[in-house]
Batch of 3 targets.
Target 1
Amino acid sequence: MSTPAEVVSPIKTAPTGPAVKAVRRSFSSPIATVLVLVLTVLWTVPTFGLFVASFRPGGASATSGWWTAFAHPHLTVSNYDTVLFQSANFGGSSGIMPFLVNSLAITIPGTLFPLTIAAMAAYVLAWVKFRGSDALFFFIFALQVVPLQLALVPLLQLFSGGAHIGTVALVPALNVSGTYVSLWTAHTMFALPLAVYLLHNFIAQLPRDLIEAGLVDGANHFRVFRTIVLPLATPALAAFAIFQFLWVWNDLLVGLTFAGGTPQVEPLTVRLSQMVGSFGGRWELLTAGAFVSIVIPLAVFFSLQRYFVRGLLAGSVKG
């Protein structure tokens, strides 16, 4: 029976042997466990210090370290009230709450768009054979070496005035600079090469029999992708979604470039950089704003961590 398209048969390998077992034993030893605990504590201390400093009044933050709060506790929640809802104490038109909403409006589509496009592209490149598919995959892979900073100005010119050769307009003026569209597009374009590469490597390891069974039963490639590939690739999708969410949420350069100084679309990171001011004062407000900015990424990570671990371990063993 003929199928809608010829299916490629990727070679599936899994690491086995004494070397792999030795590595697993070394990582599960008591020494490795103690080392991980020490590194975890060292990694957590700065975040805990930021949390404590965010509750200290301005005078205490300027004259002593956060650890002195345990000897002389004098904490207040007024820093969060000022940062979230007020503006007179650190300049600007409002607190950071509108910018927090802007960051969500930028980050959620900026994560879903490249993830959706990359998943479909990875399936096609891994399982649908067509002329030039290998060359296209290597071209996408090579795009990872293009520095993000190198593309900022050309993209900004494209979004603002289009692309021209002489008097011939190749791309008309889009006039999307300073809008969510420019930020979504920029984050999607910068994320696609790595996303396609990572998801392709995962999807290409799926059992060939599953893909062929769906095609033989009359399903088209879209249905195979939706009903077979997506459920099996959930760990890889979730793992990349975590990374992409964190990259977009913590981004400052793209937000400064494409938001165009428009407060209605500026992300939270831009607002936090404005709070620093010329002299870097009001540290109690900066620490409160910084801690607010890490709460949502932490919630996303902990909610998806089980998929993240599965994505890291996928393909490491047979079965």
Note: Residues 1-14, 315-319 have pLDDT under 50 and may be disordered.
Target 2
Amino acid sequence: MVRIPFMKEVAWYLVFAVFIIGIAPKVEAGFAPSEAIALSKVDRAADLERIQKVLETKMIRERLEKLGFTQDEINSRLSQLSDQQIHQLALQLDDLKVGKSDALGVIIALLVIAILVIIILQLTGHRVVVTK
């Protein structure tokens, strides 16, 4: 087996770097329009259509029925909202992640951990033996 100088130190550095990267919070950024621009672009009909489309999904419709809301009650409450409130609700619908999980991120994290364990075992010369 060829010994590379400082391999153990490099391996520990990589473990530390991956740990730090893993605990760093995910940050999403973007441009935020000013209120004057946002108020001028309010289209009540388009926003109501967007909200109705979300309300028509099976999961949300069933949940609202369990809570005791009829379609007429929902429509009457929506009609009581101002244009700005309707627009804010329509914008917030994009942030909903109903039934969506970050399974790909979990799989990638598990693969990275497995690869690091294999590398560390190889560098230290240890072997994993499974016997019956």
Note: The mean pLDDT is 78.
Target 3
Amino acid sequence: MTAAARSGGSTPAAWSARVLEQASSYLPLLLMALLALATWWLVKNTPLVEGLRTAAPLRHEPDYTMTQFVVQRFAPDGALRAQIEGDVMRHYPDTDTLEIDRVRLRSIGADGRVTLAHANRALSNGDGSEVQLFGGAQVVSQALGNDEAIEFRGEFLHAFLATERVRSHLPVTLLRGGSEIHADAMEYDNLARVVQLTGRVQASFPAGVVAGRK
């Protein structure tokens, strides 16, 4: 692992701790937004009682499509907590998956922190426990109080709701307060509060931060 940076004053360990702390705050909000989509889908697809019929082989064709849709989830007090929207959503019965074009996510935490995410395409399994973001994936946890905004970018992000993990086998970029980290792959465990950056890792820091080398 290598790191490249400009010189300065505080340690990279402290910077990494701040990045990890903010990363742990945005992930539950993103997962909540994705769960809202899964909840909506399960309600819409509760099976109705029908007579017996001969089962036909399923083809990889959508059994329903929605355009310009918006799904919202509210807290018990009526406050908006999550919103998911997209240009087109398709359900494929043969794989029991949902595919969304130009997905946009917005989550609002109890503390008021706003997390935004978007991608060219999203793919979710039937129960919403796994969601994959493809093409121009971006997740931004906006600044709140003294906490700076933190941003994740990549061509692919894979979120696991049940275990609160996000991983990518493709290059990712982390941005925070003028600092920037690039890695070949990433895995983030929100429950353990651990982020792993693998492959070639390069970091650049603003003046006042010193980076080490491993």
Note: Confidence is low (pLDDT under 50) at residues 1-9.
